[in-house]
Amino acid sequence: MSIADQVQALRLRKLKILDDHRKSRQQLERTLDVELAKIDREITQLGDASAKLPCLVRITPGPELTIYHSADYPCGRVHNRRNFKRMREVDAMDASPYAYLERCSACDWRRAAKIHGERLIKAS
Questions:
Q1: In angstroms, rounded to a whole number, what is the distance separating the alpha carbons of residues 57 and 83?
Q2: In this predicted model, what pLDDT tens digit does every residue of 65-120 receive, in sequence order?
Q3: What is the 3-state secondary structure (H, E, C) of the chain?
Q4: pTM score of the predicted model
Q5: HSE on the CB side for 81, CA within 13 Å?
Q6: Is residue 65 classed exposed, middle or buried when 0-12, 13-18 and 19+ CB atoms within 10 A define those classes?
Q7: pLDDT at residue 89, as a whole number
Q8: N or C: which end of the chain has fewer CB within 10 A?
């Protein structure tokens, strides 16, 4: 085998080792991303299942109350937070003497649940 062939063989071996290493790192990063995404979903579920999820209930005069809003990620209908009382979701459901209040469909409850779930984890 000539010197040029030996150099070429060594270069190819080196490139293969580097490529194999890069592929194994990419696989580890994909696995890490999948595991972290799974934990994020579980944190969101934890926050959503918590009866202490913070909500906003309107306290100013106006139309009959039918909904409450997310305190952590409210929709555009919450212009001035001073017009709302912050309370736990379990209390917000029964905040109106006339009707059982429901979640606002425009608020981003998934993000709010994730924020609340992370807050629960930090508090423990």
A1: 8
A2: 899 999 999 999 999 999 999 999 999 988 888 888 999 999 999 999 999 999 99
A3: CCHHHHHHHHHHHHHHHHHHHHHHHHHHHHHHHHHHHHHHHHHHHHHHHCCCCEEEEECCCCCCCCEEEECCCCCCCCCCHHHEEEEEHHHHCCCCCCCCCEECCCCCHHHHHHHHHHHHHHHC
A4: 0.76
A5: 9
A6: middle
A7: 93
A8: C
